[in-house]
Specification:
Elements lengths: L6 H29 L3 H14 L4 H13 L3 H13 L4 H17 L3 H14 L4 H64 L17 H11 L2 H15 L11
Helix pairs in contact: 1-2, 2-3, 3-4, 4-5, 5-6, 5-7, 6-7
């Protein structure tokens, strides 16, 4: 008895074969553009290959490389992750993990990069490039942690200085308020009977002895002084006796 393949199954097989053939052609075109460093054109052909043969690890891996060369490291990491999950063999998986580590390293995701490199080395021990990149990622992670610690220390110091300044400012304001309150309380005490009495001025009609003497001396003229002197000299002469003169 001859086995007959139904038309539906034959159509599926033919469609799958044609899709695989078209995907293969797209991959070859993408490779040519990639080798010529036309990464944008290569990306287009690799995308076509992934659409024609969904889940193909080679198409995903090559598309990740095209993204990586254009600096689109986030999309590159997604494609490398996809490729390593469906890798056909250990060597392919190690390469995909190595490139995944590179994409994470470019994004400064050092912990993720270290994990990817270590997973690659578990599969392919002693790979020189992966070991070197792993050391770079560890060094970068250490520098980042030290920088974060330094920034945290500086931030804590700035917070302490700010708190000290705030405390000093608050204390200064309290002292100023106390001084202001004390100054405002003093006039109130004076109003309660401690008002200072105005200084008494001397009466205009009363002159001191020295002032009166000075005014008197300046008021008497030189002629008056001469007459007064003559009058005093006459008063000092002896008075005549009571006997009459004997002629």
């Amino acid at each position: 008895m001859v086995k007959i393949i139904s038309g539906v199954l034959l159509s599926i097989f033919l469609s799958a074969a044609l899709s695989a053939q078209s995907a293969h052609k797209s991959l070859r075109k993408g490779d040519r553009e990639y080798d010529a460093e036309h990464y944008k054109e290569a990306e287009k052909h690799y995308r076509d290959a992934t659409d024609l043969k969904y889940g193909d690890p080679t198409a995903a891996y090559n598309l990740g490389n095209a993204f990586y060369q254009q600096g689109n490291w986030d999309d590159a990491a997604k494609r490398f992750e996809q490729a390593q999950r469906s890798a056909p063999n250990a060597s392919f998986k190690a390469d995909a993990l190595h490139n995944l580590g590179n994409a994470f390293l470019k994004q400064q995701k050092y912990k993720e990069a270290i994990e990817a490199y270590e997973n690659s080395l578990r599969i392919r021990l002693g790979d020189a490039d992966t070991k070197q990149n792993l050391q770079i990622a560890k060094k970068k992670l250490k520098e980042e942690q030290q920088r974060q610690q330094q920034e945290q220390k500086q931030q804590q110091q700035q917070n302490q200085e700010q708190q000290q300044q705030d405390s000093q400012s608050q204390e200064k304001n309290q002292q100023q308020n106390q001084q202001q309150n004390q100054g405002e309380g003093q006039p109130q005490q004076l109003n309660q009977g401690q008002e200072q009495k105005p200084q008494e001025k001397p009466e205009s009609g009363k002159l001191k002895k020295e002032e009166a003497k000075r005014l008197l001396e300046t008021a008497i003229g030189p002629e008056d002084k001469k007459n007064a002197r003559k009058y005093r000299e006459q008063r000092q002469q002896p008075r005549p006796s009571g006997k009459e003169k004997d002629w």
